[in-house]
Amino acid sequence: MTSGSFAGMAASSPATGSVTAVPRAAARSQGSATQLPAEHPLVSGLTADSPLLTQYRGGRNTAGEITRPHRRPVWFMRQAGRSLPEYRALREGTTMLDSCLDPKLASEITLQPVRRHDVDAAIFFSDIVIPLRLAGIDVEIQPGVGPVLGTPVRTRADVEALPTLDDAAFAPITEAIGRIVAELGSTPLIGFAGAPFTLAAYMVEGRPSRDHLGPRTMMHADPETWKALASWAAEVSGRFMRAQLMAGASAAQLFDSWAGSLGREDYARHVQAHSAAAFSHVTGLDGTTPEGHRVTAPLIHFGTGTGEILDLMKEAGADVVGVDYRLNLAEATRRVGPETPLQGNIDPALLRADWPVLEAHVREVIAAGSGAAGHVLNLGHGVPPETDPEVLTRVVSLIHEIGNED
Ligand code: 1CP
């Protein structure tokens, strides 16, 4: 892989933001296979008609017929993590990234919230900076801070010196996912990666930042270097998602957590095509169920503060748009069209409110999402670490009950 491997990528049109012909990456990972393995839970049929995937498909089963899942699906971003005492106990003595790369630990942590809350999906316990670590970059997650790089990536020479990522490095990921899907049965596992802007933001700043000035300056002041960096990030994130899907994940989410700091024009000109390039590693991956139906893994695109660019995020190649807590879902549907399934958007702040307040809010979110072809309940961002896990369990059973009564 070279940092210039997307040199021929067509620019997006600033006026509409539409992506014109983003070529598939030149160097395809894991060969050029576009077939999910026969034993994959989506292909064997185990997860294919789960409530989650049915909603992600716009309320259709694998045969393409409109169907009503037996319950309303819900999962939570950051459902694995510090809100769970069993997570804190397991993590003791192991750094964050080391625990992500220990297949036994990563699999157990992924499964904990599924057992506890009865959510409709597992999200792989990993981090968006794992591909950097696997490529040999000096990156650590500092407790209470987040990702910190030993050496930030700020110049053309820094970008040209970025290492290549060998697919063999994904072995701990593949092993962890094998263990997870063996336990999950018909509950789908969601894989994920960081979108190029969000990943590159950490690489340029070297640590979390509020306004992401570094990458936003770079895309204007030194667009060639920005393009090379975002292309590198798209490639490693795309291959990370692909490795997870090939190993058994049934859906994948691209996190552009910080894309909300971009204006619409900057997103369209400097970011959207790179996110499309990340997605291009996993679009077209498919298989055929024993009943003869073609199945693909739904792709979700999420960011915070992204109300003004939701349509562009969908156009980047997503099947499903994740909405943060700032935008009403009915308005989100107006912006992306009723055919687009949505995910979201319970306000994490309300997890600490009295139950009647929280219950009313959950019902409002369900009503606001009812105009979309499909709706998967989630939070508008991650579970805050101080959340009482019993509240999450109660929210899940409320959502499942509401599915059954009307
Ligand atoms: O349960 C799950 O959701 C699975 C695990 C998961 C995911 C999906 C983790 C574990 N990280 C992520 C993705 C991730 N990592 C994102 C996108 C999602 C989001 O917006 O929250 C981002 C921005 C990161 C970067 C990161 N890693 C941060 C944010 C720092 C900042 O800029 O404010 C932090 C705090 C981490 C560490 C981390 N990753 C995951 C966990 C459980 C933790 C906390 C580690 C701990 O236990 O102390």
UniProtKB/TrEMBL annotation:
Main location (coarse class): cytoplasm
UniProt keyword list: Cytoplasm, Decarboxylase, Lyase, Porphyrin biosynthesis
UniProt keyword annotation of Secreted present: no
Enzyme Commission number: 4.1.1.37
Positions annotated to bind substrate: 78-82, 127, 202, 257, 381
Record Pfam families: URO-D (PF01208)
Protein's cellular compartments: Cytoplasm
Region annotated Disordered, chain positions: 1-41
Superkingdom assignment: Bacteria
Residues the UniProt record annotates as site (Transition state stabilizer): 127
Uroporphyrinogen decarboxylase (URO-D) domain boundaries: 73-82, 190-206
Classification via InterPro entries: UROD/MetE-like_sf, Uroporphyrinogen_deCO2ase_HemE, Uroporphyrinogen_deCOase
Entry-linked CDD domains: URO-D
Catalyzed reactions per annotation: uroporphyrinogen III + 4 H(+) = coproporphyrinogen III + 4 CO2
Cytoplasm as UniProt keyword: yes
Pathway note: Porphyrin-containing compound metabolism; protoporphyrin-IX biosynthesis; coproporphyrinogen-III from 5-aminolevulinate: step 4/4
Signal peptide: none
Molecular-function GO term, any one: uroporphyrinogen decarboxylase activity
Family: Belongs to the uroporphyrinogen decarboxylase family.
Assembly information from the UniProt record: Homodimer.
Function comment: Catalyzes the decarboxylation of four acetate groups of uroporphyrinogen-III to yield coproporphyrinogen-III.
HAMAP family in UniProt: URO_D
Protein name: Uroporphyrinogen decarboxylase
Organism: Nesterenkonia lutea
